[in-house]
Amino acid sequence: MQQQQQQPTVAFFGATGGCANACLALALQAGVHCSALARTPSKLHKLLQQLNVSESAIANYLTVTEGDIYDHQAVQKTLYVDGRPVDLIVSGLGGKPRFEYGIKATLDNPTICQDGIQTIISAARSCPQKPRIVIISTTGLSDTRDVPLMMLPLYHWLLKVPHADKKVMEDLVVAEMQKPEEERAIDGYLFVRPSLLLNGDGDGLSKIRIGTDEKPAVGYCISRRDVGLWIFERVIHQASLADCQYWGQKVSLTA
Q1: Considering the domain boundaries, does residue 185 fall inside one?
Q2: In CATH, what number is assigned to the domain containing residue 188?
Q3: Are 57 and 29 in contact (CB under 8 A)?
């Protein structure tokens, strides 16, 4: 009889965000042991219920640490499941849009992504086993045009601040991986760059178009649930994490 591969353990940050939350729900439904950092655990619980995650799955497979991404101790605690360091980190960190003077678009926290990834990397440095990390980023960061021409004004005006934050976040992760292997806090990375995010059920895995940084998939939008589905199916739900073919890449997703 073929021995069943052991499923990875996964730590989620930004777990109440649509993409990460959808991925977490699928992982719990599949019996994957997960941990999550949440400022309001009851909100996370409610969101998972709305995605039809059973109470038994939440109780058996999810460990929630109350705190925020600036709490080094809470982040470090989230990187462990049952006393052992997690195999994988999924980060869906992001701020909430805010308008200054009624017209200037910014975020409630304009540096949440870069600050958060620095905390995660710092906390992971003490883990005896280096985790891999999947980071939900955005299109609009590539040197090659990865958004439709009609959407360029939107990206340059409305999304300028969050995109600048996500670019610094990506650069910090790449810089970490350029260190000597023995000095790195992580074992590998994957940037997931979805097009404009929408709520709703999504179109399913077969409808998702995938691109690379050199040859992006150009499209208008994608469901948050489809992004979470893609991360679950293409990274977590493999025989092993090493079987994911996208490590070290910046993958654009659109429907």
Answers
A1: yes
A2: 3.40.50.720
A3: yes
Tokens of 139: 């299109």
**Separation between Cα atoms, residue 100 and residue 104, nearest integer Å:** 5
Let me know if residue 128 belongs to a domain.
Answer: yes
Which H or E run contains 36? strand 34-38
Mean pLDDT per 10-residue section of the chain, whose length is 255 residues: 66 97 98 98 98 98 97 98 97 77 64 97 97 97 92 82 93 98 97 96 96 95 98 96 96 97
Q: How many CB atoms lie within 10 A of CB 16?
A: 20
Domain housing 216: 10-254
pTM: 0.94
pLDDT given at position 1: 32
Q: Are 189 and 249 in contact (CB under 8 A)?
A: no
Gap between the Cα atoms of 7 and 27, Å rounded: 10
Give me the number of domains the chain comprises.
1
CA 92 to the chain's CA centroid: 4
pLDDT of residue 4: 43
Give pLDDT tens digits for 181-240: 999 999 999 999 999 999 999 999 999 999 999 999 999 999 999 999 999 999 999 999
Burial 65-90 (b: 16+ CB within 10 A, else e): bebebebeebbbbbbbbeeebbbbbb
Domain contains 1: no
Contacts of 213 (CB under 8 A, 6+ apart): 142, 143, 144, 249, 250, 252
The answer to whether residue 5 sits within a structural domain is: no
Q: Are 148 and 220 in contact (CB under 8 A)?
A: yes
